[in-house]
Every structure is written in C-alpha cells, then in structure tokens.
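[agent] plan:
  1. take the single chain provided in the ticket
  2. run structure prediction with default settings
  3. attach structure tokens to the ticket
  4. add a short note for the reviewer (M.T.)
[agent] executing step 1
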Amino acid sequence: MATLLDGKIMAAQLMEGLKSRVNTLKEKGISVGLAVILVGEDPASQVYVRNKGKACEELGMLSETILMPAQTSQEELEALIEKLNADSRIDGILVQLPLPRHLDEAKALRRIVPEKDVDGFHIENAGKLFTGQEGVIACTPKGIIHMLKEANVPLSGKHAVVIGRSNIVGKPIAMLLLNENCTVTICHSRTENLSAHTRQADILVAAVGRAKFVTADMVKPGAAVIDVGINRVDGKVVGDVDFENVEKVAGHITPVPGGVGKMTIGMLMENTVEAAERKAK
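[agent] step 2 finished; step 3 output follows
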C-alpha cells in the first residue's frame, strides 16, 4: 500500500513558515500584497480565486481581487495589469486562467513585469527555468518537487515520466526534474505505446485532464505517482489516476482532492512572499 503524500499537511507546514516570514517583513514596515484578476464568471476559477484570498488572509497579506466582466477588451485588461505593475503595495499579480476566448492569454501574461509574475508563466521566467537560472517557478511544478523532497523520495539518477506537455505543468515539471538529475521522458496524446514508458517510471507525473486515465497496470511497483488532474465525474472531483487501484501498486501517491492542489496555492503564497523579500532587499 502506497504512502500518501498529503498536500493538506504539507501545505499547512509551509504556511506556518510563510506566516513568520510575513511577520518579519511587517516588523520592517513592509506589507506583502497579491492582486488576482478574474475575467468572466467561470465557476471553477471563482473557487480558486476565493481559496487564494483565504490563504492571503491566513498569512496576514494584502489580497486584492479584481473582477472584470466577460466582455472585457484586451486593452482594458492590459491597462489594469500596467496599473498593478506600478502599484507599490502589490508584490504579485495573477491573471486567473483560462481567460474568455477573445482575449490573448500570452499577450496579457507578457504585460506583467517578471518580478511580479508569481505564477511563473512570463516568458522571461519560463526561459530562466529552461536555462537553469534563478527566476519565479510555476506554482504546481514547484509544489510537486516540494512534496517529493518532503517525503524523501529519491530523485537523482531516477527515471521520471511526465504525461502531458502543457506550459503550465508538463514542460516546467520536466525541467525541474531534470535539474534534480532525473532522467526525464515526456509523453503526450501522440505517444505510441504509452504504458511501455510509464511502467519504467520511478516517478510518474500525470497531468492530462482525463479522469482515472492512469491505471494500475501502467505503474511500476514502488513508483511515486503524482496526480495533477482535476476532473468532475458524477459531481465528484477525481484525478487523472485511478487512485483506488494504483495505490496498491505505487510506493507513494498523491490524493485528489487534497494533494497537489493544496501545494499549488501554498507555492503561490511562497512566490508572493519571495517577491516581497526581493523588493525589500
């Protein structure tokens, strides 16, 4: 039976450490601020934004949520980002994705100054990760590495397989695992004989957005299985991994909910606190 990588417990420990860092900044007269822009009324996005607000509150950080109508123009969105770039109270700016279809996500994200890009999606921060330089790291991949290290899962020299090649999770987690001296294979929807690859993985990251896609016969006994998926099935939230059966084969496994998602918000808070600390220096 696999060891559970409990995101709730790990995130709570992380938040305790961040609370004291926020207090240290406050003692120097520095507040920490996060601005979240939500365009439209996507229900899942509204839940995420509320959770981010709660996390800020818990840490004693300034939290500003700006709601914009679905018909907001590109010009209006970019003008707001520019305004927040210039606002000294704000250390982190987050544009909640996905945006309505008529808006250009990449263009909007490029507008955020790299040092306030706490999501780690700006082309400059992505480039720094790719070239092994210090920059802001995307929250979900950063959280995954944190979880693996907290659980003392060996990384160096191990074979990691990532299913999914998105800019948000697949590509950055592959880079981070490579930086930890893993041998990394990236698989995707066009990969032939997927199971042949996944069965070789000491660390398997599933980020495909398909409910219970990874089955027990795809997993190497003793592997660490990280489930990034969030899917709704019959009103329930389930991951990309068939948890019930894979748990019997894996060495470590993350649950959904209560796994990687909790760490993502924790890492967003850490990126915002780090941005404030850099500014204070």
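[agent] step 4 note for reviewer: The mean pLDDT is 96.
[agent] ticket updated
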